[in-house]
Amino acid sequence: MHDDLLSAMRQSIIDGDPDRAVELARRGLTLGIAPLDAINRGYVPGLDYVGDHFGKGEMFLPDLVMAGEAMKAATGVLEPELQKAGARREILGTVVLGTVKGDIHEIGKTLVSTMLSASGFAVDDLGVDVPFETFATRAREIGADIVGVSALLTTTMTGQRNVVESLERHGLRPRVKIIVGGAPVTRAWAEEIGADGYGEDAVAAVAAAKALVGK
Ligand code: B12
Questions:
Q1: Which end of the chain is more exposed for a tag (fewer CB within 10 A), N or C?
Q2: Which of 54, 26, 23, 33 lies closest to 14 in space, CA to CA?
Q3: What's the gap in Å between 214 CA and the centre of ligand 1?
Q4: Ligand 1 geometric centre to CA of 60 (Å)
Q5: The whole model's pTM is what?
């Protein structure tokens, strides 16, 4: 169902066309496509295509930048819809979330943030390129239950280990739990660095967070 629309969404990312991506997102909502389906089955395959071709040297940095801009434009339309589901719920827990230092990838982290709030978590989103220590200082300040660390580069995922160590140094472990994610991150990596949870996508991130607060 809606295969043509989903493949047009994918193409709008490959073309790096924010206006088209927004128009298709609005059309998707009108047709009753679930926002998360539009993201995961429409737009993300476009990002994967651009990422693969960039990796092979067949697409270039401007293509990556424009694909990212188109994706942000589409999620700008879809995320408020995801958010609505979370209105007026009991708070399940507080999460400090960010993309680790040296890394400016924000799309997946922001999607995780939206899905966590839509599921009843209070989320303090620190943004991107977040210094290791900031996760710990913020978690202490607001009495967070969980710290979530995103990394999209093999060179920055090692920073997730620094965040775990920083929380230990601040005496916040094991009370404050840590979840990690991002394209190169695996469950095995999460275990190796001593994180408590891992999520391969935003839905799994919510499941991991709920398990850690016992819900
Ligand atoms: C868009 C994009 C960009 C955009 C980002 C725009 C933005 N505003 O975010 C821009 C142009 C800035 C960019 C820059 C670069 N990029 Co880039 N980028 C991508 C691309 C195509 C898509 C990433 C994305 O948004 N995916 C969609 C989201 C929804 O998925 P996600 O991020 O994986 O997030 C999901 C899960 O991972 C998980 N998750 C994410 N975070 C968290 C956190 C927690 C706690 C949990 C539980 C779960 C979780 O849930 C999310 C939602 O489902 C990827 C390729 C790819 N397919 O991943 C390359 C990619 C990540 N980039 C890459 C590279 C090399 C770069 C650059 C170094 C390029 C350069 N030469 O400058 C720079 C690095 C800049 C920096 N210092 O960070 C490489 C990384 C290679 C590697 N192994 O390290 C990739 C894989 C492309 C490739 N094949 O070569 N990039």
A1: N
A2: 54
A3: 30
A4: 14
A5: 0.94
Cross-sheet strand order for the sheet of 146-150: 121-125, 93-99, 146-150, 177-181, 197-198
Pocket of ligand 1 contains residue 201 by CB under 6 Å: yes
